[in-house]
Amino acid sequence: MDERKLGKVHAAIPDMLQQVKKGKLSRREFIINSALLGLSATAAYSLVGLKEFGIPAAHAQTPKKGGTLRVSMQVQEMTDPATFDWTEKSNVARHIGEYLTMWGEDNVTRPYLAESWSTSDDLTEWTFKLRKGVKWHNGDEFNADDVIFNFTRWLDPKTGSSNIGLFSSMVESFDTGKKDKDGKAVMSKRMIDGAITKIDDYTVKFKTSSATLSFPENLFNYPTMIMHRDFEKNGKDFSKKPIGTGPYTLEEFKIGERAVLKRTGMPYWGEKLDNPYIGGPVFLDKIQYVDHGKPGPTVIGAYASGQVDAIYAFDIAQQQMVESLPDTTIYTASSSITGVMRMRVVEKPFDNKKLRQAVQACCDIDAFSKLIFGGRANVGEHHHVAQIHPEYFELPKPKQNIEKAKKLLAEAGYPNGIELTMAIGNTSGEWQTQVGEILKQQAAQAGITINLNVMPSAKFWEIWDKAPFGLTEWTHRPLGVMVLGLAYRSGVPWNETGYNNPEFDKALSEAETIADPAQRKAKMEKVQKILQEDAIMVQPVWVPSFALANNKVKGYTAHPTRYHLYHKVWIDA
């Protein structure tokens, strides 16, 4: 594409394109960032001489309509999408309800229920144009009122949605006028003045208190599914009254057993689009999720015996077994999925920074990738920003230092060592226990005894944000600032560490304001260093994302967040 034909674009895009030409910015970084600023993915790819990444053409065969795709995946409660806390819930729901934006296997953000968006040069105003002609399953027209209803719910602390962390620049803290038991003022959050403006029935403008580059990307986080404006009036239970805009509805649903999706019988608006992800015909009549438990031998056995056609994920421990299965394709995706061994800094003994630093100093990060994933996983650096994130800043690689750990332990008041207990739920496989076992062996060298409290997954999710020391799996996000805002910003619902560091919050907010990728990387140096220094986590490895399907399943792909986008899947029976 001739860049002279671009027309009006965000002021940062031409400069980024020049950086690509000078070799200062990768083509991948340009595509991801320019798409966030409102440039179409097709145009972004064309400007740097690449063909747009999309759903494969199903092995050059003619797709067949009809049939049922059977998938092994845990079937969890599905009450309120705004409070979803696990990907599996959204995978059932996302074929019924939909999102304003989407990102695919290439981590590029594209329009979905939104037709397009634009932003001010300072990234504080975002204007979204909504698609016309999209119908809810009850016949209502999708419009701006639905979007405003959802944002208002998300940003109300009473809802309990993690989205309040993603869109923190749209809220402010205020004194409720109440006192707690210690006589301190009780603070709460509310939307800032002018946060949402309805321009017309299909145009909504958002105002933020600070620049937020990730705004469009945040809208495909799994709790940001758009609900009908009458969701609360209809009982606030999506599993009982699943009104959506997608091609499927819920035929059967039983937690822990199965969820069956069937075509609605209504024309699907997306079939009119030329879109590599959601546009064009939808082929499957039904999608059937069967719960065989968390990834492990039982799931592989169900697949091998023909009970299902695909599985949500499999544990690396089953790699050799899976590779021997006939008529099977293994799908992988580059991902920032990780296991974070986090410490709650608001509870003893983890309120002692030197103790946390001692635990972290025991960690030999290379051992985890080598011993668990055969060297195929990237190492983590204890700051939850991955090498595949476009804003990742390369810091000196953390090294194990047992003598330093012993010294810190003594300074923390434990010269004779300490005994700790880590909660583990193996929520996506036995690799989580393996991670705990490796750290246990490493920490023992410094006199730190780590007992592993391995519990059922369901039990773990009851205490995941309460256990003083625990291993939590965090799913992939395309930008590092997204997960940091969800997990470590002060006061957000998913801040499981209880971390509250104004210096970190300020540094993160500054990084979020920068459109230029090189400048944002420079800002991330401080963000990553603060998290390392405060030692709120031991995060030694990024977990590869594996899935598989029978070869009769066509058009299947692996998504880095393990999202299921089955609009293009079909069965060659």
Mind summarizing the main beta sheet? 7 strands, mixed
- Which architecture of the largest domain does the CATH hierarchy give at level 2? 3-Layer(aba) Sandwich
Kindly report the CATH topology of the largest domain.
Answer: D-Maltodextrin-Binding Protein, domain 2
Question: C-alpha Rg, in Å?
Answer: 24 Å
The strands making up the biggest β-sheet line up spatially as: 10-11-12-1-13-20-14
**How much of the residues is beta strand, in percent?**
15-25%
Question: How many β-strand stretches?
Answer: 22
Low-confidence stretches: none
So what's the overall shape? Answer: globular
What's the name of the CATH homologous superfamily of the largest domain? Periplasmic binding protein-like II
Number of discrete helical segments: 17
Could you report the average pLDDT, rounded to the nearest whole number?
Answer: 92
Straight-line distance between termini:
41 Å
The portion of residues assigned to helices is 25-40%
Q: What class do helices, strands and sheet pairing give?
A: alpha+beta
Summarize the structure.
With 573 residues, the protein is α+β, with helices and mostly antiparallel strands. It contains 17 helices and 22 strands.
Tell me what the structure shows.
The protein has 573 residues and is of the alpha+beta class. The protein is 27% helix and 20% strand. The chain folds into three domains: 3-51, no CATH class; 53-332 and 546-573, 3-Layer(aba) Sandwich (D-Maltodextrin-Binding Protein, domain 2), CATH 3.40.190.10; 338-538, Dipeptide-binding Protein, domain 3, CATH 3.10.105. The chain is built from 17 helices and 22 strands. It has a seven-stranded mixed β-sheet, with helices on one face. Strands 17-16-18-15-19 form a five-stranded mixed β-sheet. Strands 4-5-9-8 form a four-stranded antiparallel β-sheet, with helices on one face. Strand 10 (248-254) and strand 11 (258-263) form a beta hairpin. It is globular, with a radius of gyration of 24 Å. The two termini are 41 Å apart.
